[in-house]
Amino acid sequence: MLKLARYIGICALATSQLSTAATVFVQYPDPSGSGITSDPAFATQTGAGFFAEADLLSAVFKARSESPDASFAYAGLQGLTFTNPLGNAPILLPAGALGVNITGQYTLGPLVPNSGASAGITGVLSINDGSLARVARGDHFVNIGQASNGFSYPPTNTTTPITQNGGTVLFNTATLTNLDMTLLMPAMTIDPGETLEITFLLQTIQGANGAGVKSLADASNSAKLFFNLPAGVSLVDNAGGTLTWVKPVPLPGAFSLFGIALASAAVRLRRAAPHSH
Fold this sequence. Notes:
Radius of gyration: 20 Å
Helix content: under 10%
Structural class: mainly beta
Strand content: over 45%
Order of helices and strands: EEEEEEEEEEEEEEEEEEE
Number of helices: 0
Number of strands: 19
Mean pLDDT: 74
Low-confidence stretches: 1-21, 248-277
């Protein structure tokens, strides 16, 4: 189980109303500590065999790992919240308005007897309203191996969507060398006083055995989070700049397949309660 740190920021979703952005985080292999770094806008970590980057301002998340130096690298954001102020009309988000597109590449080998290599990329987008969790998670793994007699096992290419309460996972491309995956949330209504909480994680996984065998999982081409807000609704960071990722973007063409395969992501909608402090 990977330990995640939680960072929270409050944002207002209302016509012409400013808001404050949350923190992004990067977690990576670090035997001497928690391996987590965070920054209100941008965070990058590099080391032997891994690279991870998270940029809140543009909602770009990147991760790369290569065996045998690193077992995983991941980047994302957690606890990013938006509140619809009391007294305002509901904010309606159509299906597919909130999502992320992930692209990646794989390299495996060279194989020698009694060896194998595997690589994978996982993307998770999630929402939760306390009683209702929405999840869109996609796992993609590729594996190859060779027996002691030199026989090469047929390569395997596995896609696993995990979804809950309307989350959608679309494997636009999933081959032994390339991945293009889209995670989407269903239509949602943010009533006055309710809060929307977003969590996103991009993780690369790799593993190899046998001398000289390497595997590479590379999502440094990035995952791009998109959040299409209704007309008149804007989101700015605490420095007063409009976040680029909330500007309207075209929905993926494959979204017409909504409901096919869905995966593990959570965004939380909860009724705001008065604070006692």
